[in-house]
Amino acid sequence: MKKSNKKFILLLFALTIISFNTLSQIQYKVAGNVIDTLKKPIEGVSIRLITDKDTLRSTTDFKGNFSFPKVSHNKFYVVVTALGYKSFASVYELAVKDKNTILETIILKAEPIRLNDIDVNVKVDPIKIKKDTIEYNAGAYTIRENDKVEDLLKQLQGIEVDSKGAVKAMGKKMTKLRVNGEDFFTSNVEDYIRQLPADIIAKLQVIDDYGDEANFTGIKIGEPQKMLNLVTKPGMDNGVFGNADATSATSNAHTINANGNTWRKTKQIGFGANYGITDNAFTKSDNNGFNGSLREKLSKELSINGNYNLSNNSNNSINSNYIETFNPQGTIYDLRESESNAKSFNNRIGFGLNGATKKNFVNASISGSLGINTNNSLSTSNKTGFIQQDLFSNSGVKSNNPNLSGNINWSRKLANNRRSLSVGFNFGTNGSNSNSSINDIIRYYNATTSILVKDSLLNRLVANNTSNANIGGNIQFANSLKKLNDSSGYSFISLSYRFSVSRSKNLQTTRVEDQIGNSFVVDSLGQNYVSNFINQTISLGFNANKKKISYSFGVNFSPSIIIGEYRITGQSLRNYQLNFSPSANLSYQIKDNRNLNFSYNGYTSSPDFNKLQPVRNSNDVQNIIIGNPNLKASSNHSANLTYNQFGLKSGLSIMLGLSGNFSFNSAVSNTVFLRDTLNSLKQQTTYENVNGIYNIGTNYSIDKRLLTNKLSISFDGNVAYSHNVFYTDNILNQSSGINLSNAFRVELNQKKYSFNISTAHSFSSNTYSVLNQNIKNIQILALDGGASWIPTKRFRLNTSVSKSLNFGYNLNSGNPLLVNLGLNTAFLKNNRLNLSVQANDLFNKGSLFRSTITNNSITENRTRFISRYVQATLNYSINQFGKKTSRFTTPNYNESF
């Protein structure tokens, strides 16, 4: 063989070997994303990609993203591990042509590590503060036998729980409840914090929630709502719980309640029923109801829910009101006493559907209700001062109110998730039919001698028929300005369009009876109109999310028109508006456990149709209302700034908030006094646009934790200033108010005992430009204390004492000393049967007062009720979670994960 041929063969052989080796070294790029059950990214997760030849390692960035740029085989094994989460493992096989692949999102479930029989003396981190989440470690707080989630919430800094179970976080109400990132039964916070035991909870998270659709698309614009998410301990994510109780009190009040719930990973079924009766000198009521709910996950992507509520209530109540109204012509003092008997029968049913895949999100709901209501009331009004007259009114109203509403929303991610499209539609219809019988007696007195001059009698039969219907829709398109796996973060620009069309009809016929019982229709006391409202909104927004900071801003343009027709007078109304409003949000993670949040929202609102219509409304013969068809839309602006900080070593938490609300072109009332046909004074109200209405305020909470988080010393409160503008007798007036509220608290929580003492002071001062800067000051100084002693797991003794010093009220408020005493004892296995006896207001000093300011009027309200009584409650409860009851042994570690 020739030498040249040998060289050629060797070269060909070498090229063949190289080509085979090249083919065997095909490179694949594999990327993915890791999130928790709240759909939030997890940073620092360990990722291992294992092939038959080697193992590649990576970790997730702050957005939960990971990537392997050089994977040598199309079949591999992925293992995902993170402290505090269940491990994940899966086998993947790629098509040979798929050189760049993004794996399906990996969801990790929480699973704290158990350290059996080992004491870990690590200082617990009770709070973790992130950009949009404040997380509380339940293990850092005291949890006793039979404690509920409500008892745990009351120990958390910045959290308030009122007597009805409503929860606020830094002054904002919690609107949604989730458990382990999933909607829980009705998603209503008040419904379940008194049912779920505290000892199954590992963490409590307060989240700034922009809605499910925003979490899917990443477009978070507008002011967020507060959501509570409960993270359970391992194995406690399913169970059966409920209770039945009977209560009887010496105030002749008796109630029976029962509820039961089955909670599985894919299905939630709950029901509740109640019956209560009260019959004493001040209150007569008969209330009963039933409710049921269902939530089921049909597949990984689709879930449905439904609920039904029925209530039948009858209540009789007595109220006292004292009103001071300032006017350039003099001050009017009005003492009002009223007794009402209201009955209502209401049904409500609703269905919902939620679905989400990697590319699509959809939710839909429909609900309907029917209410039948009657209200009979007897009231007296004794006016002195500038006007001296008495009004005796006896009225009866019966109405039924059907309602139907629904909506559907769909979102889809486009172009490798860099773009999204959202479409929505909603509708609603409701009506009301009512018949009223109103009998008024008015007595007029001489302003100088206070001698009765004359009286008048007016009996009216009013039939009112209203109906409302509306439809609306929206479409939104968003485009990413960066690649979603860009380590510097992502940003979107969005464009949206919304519309709404509504139509209202009102037909009111008023018949007046003369002294011999004959009735006739009075057109001037009736109404017959149709109104149409069309509103459109075009919005442009920008949204960005980076490692330490996320922000958004946008602008809205909203043209609208209101068209009204009056069939009695032949008049018509046309009101056009062009509204503009901006918005902005900022969340900044300054350092670990320290964040700053800012939100600004501007919005415009068109005037209410009743304020626009130029037709006289004489339903209240002592106050005739005439609308102003030339009213402009009001512009409202609100801004909120919050700062949160917690020091692990110092145990000091600081939560500060600053807020402000400003309005332009506000529609306010203008009340003037006119002489009637009897030469006596009565009011006529119209409406005008004004500027200068605003309020600013700050709230704060400073909390120091000692003795391994058992002792809490806190100082919290708020300062607010408000400025109001209004008309009286065609004269522009102003009012301003200062409200201060501060409280100092000391609270100690141990397993065997607890106590708390607090002192609180509130002060409000209101100044008017009427009557030479008339000032009204009200002060309340309250001293409170309470204690609990738990000598055994089956016995608890509670007591509370409060002293209130009230200054500035016109009604007799007194300075009550309230003393309450109670005991609780448990029986049966797992303490399922509980007997509690509570003695309230031992010295019979209780009273309920409330003071409100409206333009140039101050109203003081006193509700009469029996405050001293003894009540006994027998309760049987079932709390079965996981494979054992909620009375499981708590692990002997307190580490935060």
Spell out the blueprint of helices and strands.
Layout: H1 3-24, E1 28-36, E2 46-50, E3 55-59, E4 65-71, E5 75-81, E6 88-93, E7 100-102, E8 106-108, E9 127-129, E10 133-137, H2 149-153, E11 159-161, E12 167-169, E13 172-179, E14 182-183, H3 189-192, E15 201-209, H4 212-217, E16 225-232, E17 239-249, E18 253-263, E19 267-279, E20 284-297, E21 302-327, E22 330-356, E23 360-385, E24 389-414, E25 419-445, E26 452-480, E27 490-513, E28 519-521, E29 527-545, E30 549-566, E31 572-591, E32 594-605, H5 609-612, E33 623-625, E34 634-646, E35 652-664, E36 666-675, E37 681-690, E38 693-706, E39 711-728, E40 731-749, E41 753-768, E42 775-792, E43 795-807, E44 817-827, E45 833-840, E46 848-854, E47 857-863, E48 869-881, E49 884-885
Give structural attributes.
mainly beta; OMP_b-brl_3; 5 helices; CarboxyPept-like_regulatory; single chain; 897 residues; receptor; signal; 26-stranded antiparallel beta barrel; disordered C terminus
Structural class: mainly beta
Kindly state the percentage of residues in helix.
under 10%
What general outline do the C-alpha atoms trace? globular
Mean pLDDT across all amino acids: 81
Uncertain parts: 15-24, 113-122, 884-897
Instruction: Report the count of strand segments.
Output: 49
Rg on CA atoms, Å: 33 Å
Number of helices, where a helix is a run of at least 4 consecutive DSSP H or I residues? 5
What does this structure look like?
Residues 413-876 form the Outer membrane protein beta-barrel domain. Keywords: Receptor, Signal. Pfam families: CarboxypepD_reg, OMP_b-brl_3. The chain has 897 residues and is mostly beta strands. The chain is globular, with a radius of gyration of 33 Å. The longest helix has 22 residues, at 3-24. It contains five helices and 49 strands. Helices cover 5% and strands 65% of the residues. The strands form four sheets. It has a 26-stranded antiparallel barrel. Strands 9, 10, 11, 12, 13, 14, 15 and 16 form an eight-stranded mixed sheet that branches.
